[in-house]
From TrEMBL:
This is Condensation domain-containing protein. The lineage of its organism: Bacteria, Bacillati, Actinomycetota, Actinomycetes, Streptosporangiales. InterPro entries: CAT-like_dom_sf.
Length: 612
């Protein structure tokens, strides 16, 4: 960072006499709290920034008065978080007894750094470059949102030791405020929430009078979520989650694990005007939204990378369809598992199917993730495989003021200008792939952050380029199902020998056999496969286990999966009284006395019954 981007002064903005209260955290806050605790408090990944121009004629006092009014108006900017469990625990999903409170403070202070644009920086490009040096300083490090409770008689506790989730900088030119830069913790605001706050800030900076404090704050949302009406919303969403967990493929990463890079999680950014113009033209041709088109394209390329046309993707949603949530200043975003099967469909048909898939995710995004964790564990027991919800998709909304496609530019020529650049790589984050559409204007930017233990670096660019090719090709015509791979150029994964195709994906047969023998212990045990009617493989497990039921064995094996995506539970268990005879293969068990056989699940599924 250049010396010119250092603050020249700082001041403190103090607030007193505001509303203080404590409620349980909202579902959106819970989700982000866990993600931040997993990633680490020193990682800036979940710090979001906004830079606003300050209108001419507004001095520093007027600028700070506008900020002070926004802090008064939006409780989320004065909130710290109080967990009732050990915050050092990094498990992404909480135990059912865990609790997180949001603690809104009545008083506090926010430091404001002042920067001066050097007089030699006169062009717009130079000033933008200066601002790009200021923003990272605000993002470092992660906000210290963890508070401790301080009680004063019967009054609610206030937060102590928890930083307010906002940092500020005013950028001056010859002493006059030019820009207001702000960093926000994702705990307090999502991107749409930032837009709400930014719009109010701009209105105040332009001389608008303060409005009444909004009646719907995050604390009010938390109270609603716990109400009978909120519980009905949760039950409806849980029914959707239950259906997805039990019908969609349990993982997109039934792949051999490779030696990861250092750092392990690599981000690449594709800046492609061609991709966004192509998406806009396809959206106009089919009379769909650009977000729907981008959702469909992302599902195709992520599915192709995992070698499947039936996908499960966690879509980041925050349903803001109606008031009071439409203009809610808070973090509503939660990841919603979305099942999307495009088997045999052309790309136009995939886009049409994406409408209902994305809508279902949006309408069912208000759910209790502690209950979903229990549901996920129950589904894992039922299907016998770890449900790996580690593929994420985040598509930001259109900026109505950004330049859009005019329908004239040559997309093929624009593809030659596409640029790939490194993003922010990191050591630890709870995902395997995050595809983000950062800019949907003609300046389009798409990033892909991937776990290199499953996705090598060269495949990251291949996925992004494949998405661009698909959007450009689909802009003017439909693409048949049989040509999708040809158009994207994405190669299916090479799993190598020893992997078999099962009803729910692929599995490493030798690794699954080793896990089965570990569960059984010292007694004889083996595992075989047979081909089913679809051409896939059904796993049959044998063991000498006189003292354990097949249900006990299935429960123990499922518990031993330990988030592995290369192994799965057998489809059929055969519990024998006698050790196998010295004959080759499965025939050695055919003369053993069978004590019990079945799926090991609570209900028998015809799909699991052996054919022989």
């Amino acid at each position: 960072m250049s010396e010119s981007a250092r603050p020249v002064a700082s001041l403190v903005l103090r607030l007193r006499g505001l509303t203080a209260r404590v409620t349980p955290a909202t579902r959106g806050q819970w989700n982000m709290w866990r993600a931040i605790r997993y990633t680490g408090e020193h990682d800036r990944f979940f710090n979001l920034c906004e830079v606003l121009p300050i209108p001419q004629g507004r001095d520093l006092r007027a600028t700070l008065d506008a900020v002070r009014e926004v802090l008064r108006r939006y409780e989320t900017l004065r909130t710290a978080y109080l967990p009732t469990y050990d915050p050092a625990r990094t498990t992404y999903y909480p135990a059912c007894g865990d609790r997180l409170d949001q603690v809104v403070s009545a008083e506090g202070e926010v430091p404001v750094e002042l920067y001066e644009i050097p007089p030699e920086l006169t062009s717009q490009e130079q000033i933008l470059e200066f601002l790009e040096q200021v923003v990272p300083r605000l993002r470092e490090p992660q906000f210290a949102a963890h508070a401790r409770a301080v009680r004063d008689g019967p009054e609610p506790p206030i937060a102590a030791g928890g930083e307010w989730p906002i940092r500020l900088a005013v950028v001056l030119s010859e002493g006059r405020p030019m820009f207001l830069a702000a960093a926000f913790s994702h705990l307090c605001l999502d991107s749409d929430g930032i837009a709400v706050v930014a719009q109010e800030l701009m209105r105040l900076l332009e001389g608008g009078a303060p409005d009444p404090v909004p009646a719907w704050q995050p604390a009010d949302l938390a109270i609603h979520e716990l109400s009978p009406a909120g519980q009905i919303e949760n039950e409806r969403a849980m029914a959707y989650i239950r259906k997805v967990f039990r019908s969609a493929p349990p993982t997109m990463f039934d792949l051999p694990r490779r030696e990861p890079e250092t750092p392990r999680y690599i981000e690449r950014i594709m800046r492609s005007e061609a991709a966004m113009r192509g998406a806009a033209r396809l959206a106009r041709r089919l009379r769909m939204s650009k977000q729907t088109v981008l959702f469909a394209a992302a599902a195709v390329v992520l599915g192709q990378r995992s070698g499947r046309t039936n996908t499960m993707i966690q879509v980041l949603c925050g349903n803001r369809t109606d008031e009071p949530l439409r203009t809610h200043a808070g973090n509503l975003t939660v990841p919603v598992p979305c099942a999307f099967d495009f088997t045999g469909l052309s790309f136009d048909q995939i886009v049409l199917e994406a409408v209902s898939a994305s809508m279902s995710a949006q309408l069912n995004c208000q759910w209790d993730q502690k209950a979903a964790w229990v549901e996920r564990r129950a589904a894992e027991l039922a299907i016998g495989r770890h449900i790996d919800v580690a593929t994420y998709l985040n598509i930001l909304r259109d900026d109505p003021y950004a330049p859009q496609d005019d329908g004239v530019a040559d997309l093929r020529e624009l593809m030659t200008r596409t640029v790939f650049t490194p993003g922010e790589s990191r050591i630890q984050i709870d995902l395997k792939i995050l595809l983000m559409v950062l800019d949907t204007s003609v300046h389009g930017a798409v990033s892909l952050l991937a776990d290199t233990a499953y996705t090598p670096v060269h495949s990251i660019d291949e996925i992004l380029r494949g998405m661009e090719r698909l959007l450009v090709a689909g802009a003017s015509r439909d693409i048949p199902a049989g040509r999708l791979s040809e158009v994207t150029g994405i190669r299916p994964p090479d799993r190598g020998p020893g992997w078999v195709r099962c009803r729910d994906g692929h599995a490493d047969l030798a690794a699954t056999r080793d896990l089965w023998r570990t569960v059984v212990g010292t007694s004889p045990a083996d595992l075989y496969t047979e081909v089913d009617r679809s051409g896939g493989h059904r796993m049959i497990a044998y063991a000498v286990a006189p003292d354990r039921s097949i249900m006990d064995l299935h429960h123990q094996l499922t518990a031993s999966l330990d988030e592995r995506t290369d192994v799965r539970a057998p489809d059929w268990y055969v519990r024998c009284a006698d050790p196998p005879h010295p004959a080759p293969g499965r025939a050695s068990w055919t003369v053993s006395r069978v004590l019990e056989e079945g799926t090991g699940r609570t209900s028998r599924s015809p799909a699991l019954t052996p054919t022989s």
